[in-house]
Every structure is written in structure tokens, then in C-alpha cells.
Amino acid sequence: MKIAISGKGGVGKTTLTAMLAYLFAKDGYRVTAIDCDSSVNLPFVLGIREKITPLSELRDEIQRRVVAPMGIIKLNPKVDDIFEKYSVKKHGIRVLVLGTIEKGGEGCFCPENAFLRAILRHAIFKENDVLLLDMDAGIEHLGRGTAKGVDLLIAVVEPSLRAVETLNRIEKLARDIGIDNIAVVINKFSERYRKLLDRIERPILGVIPFDECFIRADLEGIPPFELGCQMEAFERIKDRIVEIIRRATSRQRR
Ligand SMILES: Nc1ncnc2c1ncn2[C@@H]1O[C@H](COP(=O)(O)OP(=O)(O)OP(=O)(O)O)[C@@H](O)[C@H]1O
Ligand SMILES: [Mg+2]
Prior knowledge:
binds magnesium ion
């Protein structure tokens, strides 16, 4: 399963990525989580203190693997050892950092993009594998070729007037790059905003209340799952994801 998590700044993308990564790993899935946000935060939330080399910094490695003699870009560079070499493992989760990759768009065949595409393609392998991408709202740098493999895009929204607008923006971006399966997680919810839920047309995977527990986890530098923040709500979200992807896959097979 390849899942991209998007949304505007500060809504809880990294929190959701960390919680899902932990829960999938606990269920025995082989989990890889990639921090694709330019301000790297996922390793910290997962309690990783050592530096992880961003994949975008592997200039020489990229050149060597992607650019063939005469400057031709290989479409299928070898990347299978990259995951082991440049990841840090914690709580059973393999964590990688993407770094700043140029937003090349569709027409761009820059080596970095070819490399990223190959990495994401490679990441999907067996039924038991889960790849989580902690993105920002600008998912366009996934590009068409990469996005095709994304089984589900989760838009995280906060209950605010702008939430629905953000959702529309994410939907448009997703459509442009060919992702159709989109679902929503509402985070930092409070009952006052219940009406907002009616305005969201996409399937809602779950609603996480505003909870001081996350702020404590953040301040103390402890992963939120170690403090048990809203575990049941996240468990339900995880189960729903499995169901949605299973349904989509069986539809494709038919
Ligand atoms: N349900 C919640 N209740 C209260 N605080 C929360 C909740 N979810 C996340 N937070 C807090 O909100 C802040 C932002 O969360 P997080 O870093 O996950 O968001 P983000 O979307 O990844 O942000 P960024 O755009 O900066 O990457 C963090 O301090 C986190 O602890
Ligand atoms: Mg984040």
C-alpha cells in the first residue's frame, strides 16, 4: 500500500504519518515512511535523534545511477539498496528523508525526479509493504509517473473555514497528477464544528479531537503513540485504509 499524506501547514500530517506507521508496523506490515516535507520533522516525532541523509543530497549517487554515458537518463535506475543504506529504523519503521527535490512537473526529466520516481516505484513490492509519504500541500512534485502508484491520498484538514478550500486545492492537484482515490482525516476537531463535516464530500476516514496529549508529546519529544494519544481513533483510521485500498484493488482487478 502506498499512501500519501497531504494538507496545509500545521494540520497534523506528520502526526498522522507517525501514528499510522507505528500501527501498521505493530500489525506486522513492513513499513517505510518518507519525510517529503522540506522542513524535516518526521524522524524527530518518531524519536529519532541521529541525522538521516536526505536522498536529495545524494548527488553523486544519483548521477551514477541515473545518468548513463552521453547524459542519457535511465528510466529504471537501480535503487534497491538505497532504502537500507540511507534509512534509520525505529519502532519497526524504516524512515527516510527526501530533502528538497526540484518541483520539475511532468515534463521534467531531471535526474533527481527520475531517481525519486524509481525510489517510489521500488518501494512497492509485496502485499505486506506499506509506504507512507509525509508530504506538504504541494503534492505536484510527485509527478504523474510516481503518483500513479499512490493507492490513496489522505488530505488532513483542520476544522476551519479554509479547510474545505484546502481540500479543493488538494483534489485539483491530485487530479492533475492522476490520483483518484482521496479520503479525508479531520484533525484537531471540536464539536463546535460538526456542521463542517457535511460540507466534505470525500470519504472521511476519521475525526481526531483536539487533544493536549499531542502537545505534551511534542514538548517532551516523545512519539505520541508512546503516550497513547487517541490510539483507538487512529486504529480505526488504519483499518479503514486497509479496507478502502483492498476494495479499490479488487475493483481494478475486475
Ligand atoms: N489532534 C491534535 N490535537 C492537538 N494538537 C495536535 C493534534 N494533532 C497534532 N497536534 C499538534 O499540532 C502541531 C502540528 O502537528 P504536525 O507537525 O503533525 O502537523 P504538520 O501538518 O505535519 O505540520 P507541518 O506543515 O509543519 O509539517 C504539533 O505540535 C502537534 O503536536
Ligand atoms: Mg509535518
